[in-house]
Amino acid sequence: MLFPTPEFIYLFLPAAVLLHFTLARRNGDAAIIGTTVSSLLFYAWWNPPFVVVPVLSIVANFWLARWIQSTQAGRSRGLMIFGVAADLLVLCYFKYTDFLFSIIDGHAPRPPDVPLALSFTTFVQIAFLVYVHQRRSRVAFDHYALFVAFFPHLIAGPIVRWGSFGKQIGDPERYRIDWSNFALGLTIFVFGLAKKVLIADPLSPHVGLVFGAASQGDPVTAFAAWAGCVAFSLQVYFDFSGYSDMAVGLGLLFNYRLPINFAAPLRATSISDLWRRWHITLARLCRDLIYVPLARDRGPVRRWFSLWFTMVAVGVWHGAGWTFVLWGGFQGLLLLINQWWRQFRGPRRATRLGRVIGWVLTFGAFAASMSLFRAADLDASWNLISSMAGFGHAPIADRHLAEDDWMIRHGYFVSSMFVRTWFGSTWTVTATFWTLAALLIALVLPDTMEVTGYREGDAQSDWRRRIGFLAWRPSFVSFAAVAAIFAVVFTKIGQVSEFFYFQF
Amino acid sequence: MRPRAYALALGAGAALLFLTVAATNLLIDPQGVFNTAVLPVGETNTRYTRFLDYQKSADSYDGLLFGSSRAGAMPREDLSRRTGVKFANFAVEYGLITDHLPVLEYVIKEKTAKHLPLKTVFLLLDLDFFGDRPHTNESLRFLLPPEVNGERYARFWWRNLTGIQYQAWTLAISNAWRIRRGHNPPATMDILARYVAAAGSTQAAAAEIAELPKPQEGNRPGAIVRIPDRLDFQNQYRLLERFVAMCRAHNVSLIVATSPLSREWAIDFDPEDLRQVADIVSGVVPLWDFTDPKGLPDDPAVWVDRWHFREPVGRLMLDRVFGAEMPAGWQDFGRLRLRALPVI
Lengths: 504, 344
Description:
The complex is a heterodimer.
Chain A: H1 6-26, H2 28-44, H3 52-70, H4 73-95, H5 97-105, H6 118-135, H7 141-149, H8 151-154, H9 162-169, H10 179-215, H11 222-253, H12 271-277, H13 280-295, H14 300-318, H15 322-345, H16 352-374, H17 378-388, H18 405-409, H19 416-423, H20 429-444, H21 448-452, H22 476-490
Chain B: H1 3-28, H2 46-56, E1 63-67, H3 76-83, E2 87-91, H4 97-114, E3 120-125, H5 146-149, H6 153-162, H7 166-180, H8 191-199, H9 202-210, H10 233-249, E4 253-258, H11 263-266, H12 271-282, E5 287-289, H13 311-321, E6 335-337
Parallel strand pairs in B: 1-2, 1-3, 3-4
Antiparallel strand pairs in B: 5-6
């Protein structure tokens, strides 16, 4: 079940909220159990047999956590390591087995049939085991089950931590309807819906044409290759940040405050800043679980290696394939270059021009790296990268897409030669328009979290801008605006594509 | 505004939107799914309604007619008379092989289970649309029936209940308005009738049609994507192979013909391109090719509009396929293509 579908919005969500607060009148634990059950139903909607995986994983990890908590410190470390290894083994089994065998015997890896959201639930539970080992805190099973299975974050994050979300589950004050949270939650949910349905989805077919052509070795012009990568960066951003916004909004309906996951990252003027603002919860988790243990009390070379290795791990987390390994490695390299530049440059504040150059380099490098992230395999990535470098094998395409014919025939904006030279047969005027519009929205309009002032788990950078009268508060004007946005979104729900991050 | 009022108003607004859409769909029933149509519907989901018609007397059919709306002009009784087989009509709007193959699979499975014969399949292919992005399941109007799609009926009805269908709603409302004013609603798929309805009279419609741009040699836009380069071409070619293989595996006699094209429409295509596609298709199955527009006059008696031929043309196609003598002026109409090597 997808969030932007009538069955979710009009059947599942009202039923789940109603069940939660009806049971909460009895007591908090009843509400917790009820919402855990509805969350598992939500999960089972896709593939009922696969619901066994998170259920078994929850039971096993809880049992292990209990053991860790009740045993001596030295032994608890061993148990924690065992638990982390077991979680990673399950993830490897489902997600990386074929890829690992492909390295050995050289066959082309097939896309794995992974239980939904396994990467997310695995990381949530690994972080939990580490937390229990460090803090030795006691955990109730129903609290833990809801912590992992809570449907707003279950499928694609944000990745929650026991230290913040676990405490909220145990807070009895949260089991009464809070209308302020409800109003804020509905507003954030609608903004997230709009990001996904009105901005990300229209970009999807245009992106698919460019990457599809690259994967078949068809000619792609340099402009189309760059435009495709930029459009894909925007699609992923709006798709995933839209999902995260919806998750935060849904959490608020239940009085839980989930952490924000995106802080307008495409405005970042350095790659370090971008990674502080993009998929914040994953970046922090990898920092805490991989980078810090590797780099702690070590020299600069070891720190650099740890940083690079952490980004490779982030890449591998996203998928089983060399494209993801290279993508992570490239991000790590960019971070190292940025670190070196910051050391070289010192603490001086960047000028306006410097920030503009920084943005162009950051966004350009990030968009270029998307040729690895989205491409089906290394050959497709290579085709796209060589096209971006101007080495594509068709400077002037022998045809273009029929979509532009109307404009060409009526003499609007473009000639046939212009389209064939610049766009080729994979890009269109319409695609250019949508991409520019999405880029402007990402750069100019305030983000959901800026408008609503929601700050749970905020980014470690000063990214918020003053937005004056656009700041949200429950009023007739904001009601009219949000209702109007929902009405537009409503006409599109049911036609949406799957969230891009579901495959991770 | 208090947060409570804000939240409740948003919830109520959302609920109102939903109820309005559901009530409208129930009242108008634009796809003919609920059998509750209060207003006369202009266009329904022909994939669903044809299937319902078939199911009403499924056991009595031993032949299937597949095609797009153009196949609506194929005289089924005539076809039945010539073959001795009773044909169920699966001529559906924008029908492509992506629509036909699942239905064929369903019918063969059903007939096999009941030990009933399926003797003949007549497939009318539109070479000019071959490889185009299929409309199959793209929107409610093009949804395949649940039995064929493997979808649950509850889900099918839910989608039809909650889908926003502006065009179908407005068409139904405008039909109702015309009836109220004494005009008949346009018949499904008859575009000439739609012109009449829109223009208010046959003369006005004829005048409107006369004003449509006429074909001019040498005015080829040259910007159209070649048919074999279309994005879905290879997929549809593979589906056609499966379609043919399935008929052969179940001893079903298969007749495949292509739709004739009007000169006005054919000018948008490179004749060599169409010929190549016909060769590719005939590599899979013997093909009666009626695509060449030279054999057909630009007479309104022949064409409903630039895309659709009329029933007399369908009769002539059957004459050609079944070896009857062709009338004067129609001798060049249609040719059988046999096993050209696939160029795919």
